[in-house]
Amino acid sequence: MSHSCFLGLDDGYFDVQIKRLGKQSETYLVGVVTCPHTVANILLRYITIDGLDGTSKALEIIDEASSLHTIKSAFLDGVTYAGFNLVNPYRIYEISSIPVVVIFRYDLDLNKILLALKKHFKDYRFRYSVIEQTYRASRILYLSKNTKLRYTAIGISVSETENILYNLCKPFLYPYPLYLADRIASALGRIKFGLFHK
Prior knowledge:
This protein is α+β, with helices and mostly antiparallel strands. The protein has a single domain (5-192), classed as archaeoglobus fulgidus dsm 4304 fold, CATH 3.30.2170.10. Helices cover 40% and strands 28% of the residues. Strands 3-2-1-4-7-9-8 form a seven-stranded mixed β-sheet, with helices on both faces. A two-stranded antiparallel ribbon has the order 5-6. The model has no long low-confidence stretch (mean pLDDT 91).
């Protein structure tokens, strides 16, 4: 594990009023490379709120990270980024050959998600198919007696994934590169939208 590098990808905060006003805007997509618990790199892109550029922007970060480090696997915080933009883990693995582990912080209500997508997107079937496929493939890992983690592993075995998770989830009970990507992206998003004081 000592020579392994991992990539966490998460999106930044954005003001939901932008969606209500129908304005197109962007927020940050942040990639953090850790090797394995030392931060080796922080990579940034913009992604469109409710757009469909999440996968391509994630692939840009993965390509850049892979040119600098040997990435053992990439971690995603679900598959919906910047509202209902998507980062498709199957497409990422297909193109980059980097294994992808999707972490679901919360259980999803697929029916509610489908209804929301139908209401707002003409291409709701496509967006829903990515969410549904990834979530239905998920499984539970118990990090401790009272702490569970739901994940979907693509391009990597269950046993190897769980071994990595046991190591990377100390001490935050969440994969360290993803934890850092979340903190950095959230702070940058609040700066971008002028809400850092909150």
